[in-house]
Records
---
Amino acid sequence: MIHPKDTLKQMIDINKSICANAFNNMSTIHDQMEKVVNIYIGQASGMSEEGKKAVREWASMYRKGFEDFKKLVEDNFAKMESFFQDKK
């Protein structure tokens, strides 16, 4: 017999896996775009050093925001999983 608690745990596991895959894909895309941007600003002779610094800071802030959001999601999945663990 399938228990509702087991079904919910499976749903959480599936969603956790989907989120992990999405975060890995987003991280890979960000890494590639950051490389492209760094190549571009390295070769952009008309761009001021202040502008280049701003672009680098923007990429850094994006990475930090992404990592913070990822950690928040992972922490919340851990909280949900702890709810479904058997208490003995």
Note: The mean pLDDT is 90.
---
Amino acid sequence: MTTNGIETVCLLLVSREPAVLRPLCSIAESNFWHLETAGSGWEAMERLQAGAVPDLLLLELPGSDGDGLHVLRWLRRLRPDLPIISISHTDDAERKQEAIRLGAQEILVRPLEERQLEFTIRRNLSLAPGAESNIRSEDAELLGDGTFFVGTSPVMRKLRAQAKLLAQAQVPVLILGETGSGKSAAAQLIHGLSVGCGLQLLRVNCAALPSHLLEEELFGHGRELRFAPARAGKLELCGKGTLLLDEIVEMPPDLQHKLLQVLRSKQLARLVGDKPIQVDVRILAATSANIEIAVAGKKLCEDLYHHLSTFTLHVPPLRQRKEEIPLLLHHFMQQLARHYGLPPRTFSPAVLEACQRYSWPGNLSELERFVKRHLLMQDSDFASGQQPVLGGMTDVGDAFSRLAAPVVPGASDSWELASVPDSLKSLVQSVRLETEKNAIAAALKKTGWNRKAAARMLKVSYRTVLYKIDRYHLRPSTATQFPEEHILPGNGNPFKGNGKLG
């Protein structure tokens, strides 16, 4: 189905029960899908015979109604290429098996969990003929929190096979890879494929905290004051789950030795008092540093390295798996469009070709920033599919570096500052940023936080205003109203949530 030149997914629901219709309406609205309903399976067949072409059909099978299975059989004969998801009232194994035999791709049991329903729909849409632009289910795995592991290239298929083997053994794994290459996603994949996938997966970024806070985060602390409660650290909170230590090389040497003692003895003593606590956590450690140099330079304790590197997993950079770039672009576009409440945009052949040629030194993080700019910066030459010529630079790499980098006001003349000392250049840019932030805040306040009116006042696109609000973390006061604007379902915050591909 095409609307205003944009391909739109069309869903046909055979049910009018609010418990089924309500979550599906919410999912369809957030994904800009078109949803139609039919009161019965016979009505759905009449529509298909009349020429309706839905991309996917959801068929409710009432608990004691044998006609539902007959309808499923006739629907399959009428449209053998149409993906059908059946919704059952009871978890009846025999009935589910019969529905699968008659042609249903999957069976969902009520009550429906919205997140599972959306993922099931997406997975079956990607298997439908003509859905090459979507990520296929065997190529992408939902890891939680909107994060996917994408593996279409040979190197990533090999990595997934290694992760599957490592998931079966309760041993530490050292994950190596460049910044932004997807080490966290690899760790989530290992955890998700393991027998302990139902247990906790906690993460500690060793580079983000000073030494004393990192120590408390990992090991917790005892009762230091009379009325101060003890605080458990991540090693204790994980239980028998998995702990991801990101950027392990940045952990101070004294904490590295302390961690090694805990892992060897499987006992944890808090900072003050308390009895030793049994620790049976699986450690996944990740780093973007050169591990050999880190060990040789004493940044990583050699004994800890040997303990953690029982098995090592190398996550390849994006430049070594460029065949995945179209899928990743599509994935990020869908996630960010939902995040900002905007319709997704397409990528022209010129942009796709340039994406394939570019080396992406920032890997997935840089690719996500680029897609964000493509979605929001409507006035970008590159986003409109023009030959990438930014700031007088004709090299594709330079163009991408500019487009994927954080937005800097006055970008057209930022190259003039190249010869200015860094401190002065930073000062000039800081002043510009502050001026822009104040101007946007003043326009929003004057228009009562009507973002479309603010965009007209500032003479910029609506997408640009949305981007700047997010960039500067601008928020309205509790008393502010939003006249003439669509408020998203839920808490009304269009910037809530994310879709990272770790």
Note: The chain has a mean pLDDT of 76.
---
Amino acid sequence: MATDKLEQRPRTLGELRRSRWGEARVAVRSVRDEMRENLLEKLARKEPLFPGVIGYEETVIPQLVNAILSRHHIILLGLRGQAKSRILRSLVGLLDDEVPMIAGCEINDNPYAPLCRACRERVAEQGNETPIAWLPRELRYVEKLATPDVTIADIIGDVDPIRAARGGLDLSNELTIHYGLLPRANRGIFAMNELPDLAGKIQVGLFNIMQEGDVQIKGYPVRLKLDVALVFSANPEDYTARGKIITPLKDRIGSEIRTHYPVDVAHGMAITEQEAWIRRYPDGRLVVPDFIQEVVEQIAFAARESKHIDRRSGVSQRLPISCLENVLSSAERRAVLNAERTIVPRPSDVYAAMPSITGKLELEYEGELKGGDVIATTLIKEALGRVFAGRLGNAPTKETVAWFDQGGAVKVGDTTPAADAVRFFQKVPGLVDTTVILGVPEDSDPALTASACEFILEGLHVQQKIDRTEQRGYTGSPRAERKAPREEQQGVPAGAKRRHFN
């Protein structure tokens, strides 16, 4: 099929003029017209517009659609980890599968209206025999990360003295130009990430291209009527921290669209599940309880509300993604050590994933004084408390709490096998029965039951119904004045970190 398609495509300018690409509308259609028409077709067919972008259905995507239908240049403003780059890269899906170009052209010249001098001379000389190549949509997207060291030569182009010497050309000759990224994005999409980091004089070169189409290379005026859709991304807080977008450039950008973090936990969980590396075992060995997923997501939500964390910097969606991956790895390690087939993370694995949390938090002064580990631990506890209150707020746990207050004790290590952990948890009145409320049947795999039991005990601790100390582990409520009995020591491998539920 692919070979037949290649054979049917026009290979010369004459064949192109006699094909459907010879229609006037198609021949002169700009990139932004092309994106607009393809978007309208997708809307009419009710196709997904931006696959993989979750949570923007009622906010960002309608604004983005309006901007594309208006043929605007676009800038996405938002804090880190808000899918800005993903959205920009997904715009390539609005381009045609492929478009014709003059074969060998550096700037993808339209065969009907070539820009560069070499292609103009070639068409004038060869006419309908001018060879035609086909440019796939994937090669029509050019992306550049703005950094202070980017030069106008990188973006627009420069004179190539070696090319001039080899061709015996004067440096003022247009044929000596080495084109930059923007001309090479001709008839496509040019994306610039972190726009405020770009030096002001380079930004001037951008807005000149956007409107006038005139640039100067080494002092020689060269008119380039580029056909480019310009899209940018920026962090609003960077305007004062590292630079700013110059006013004339902002004025030429048609639509400014604000992105945001997930507005609810369900959207956040969907994003994290999509992006995190959780499909490690195709045979279904890895089981992730939804209450563990929710705890991980709630960590990010709690961090975004914390007074100890810089809200201007934001808390990226990469935090729960990395955290969940670490949580699963901790559970995987335990399963391998105990030769268990089923891998199920527990709340203790969330604490083990703190290295994936602390590095993603920009702390305020008070937070710095407390330390990253303390802040991360506090966030985990707050997340556990939120999920516990939402899922088990009315659960019958009085019998369980009373047992602890009367001196009951259970000690489980981080690497305790699931079967042993369940056997210890079964001694706690009402504990295993309560797991049914979490959707864990009585005959579930021991690994899942152990995770649910530990989650319940962690929740009771966060609600201060049972206590925990570093020396003695979990104990009864401080309100219960009693002497703790000798704790059961079974189930803790030598050298393992011990977690106590008393």
Note: Confidence is low (pLDDT under 50) at residues 1-7, 481-502.
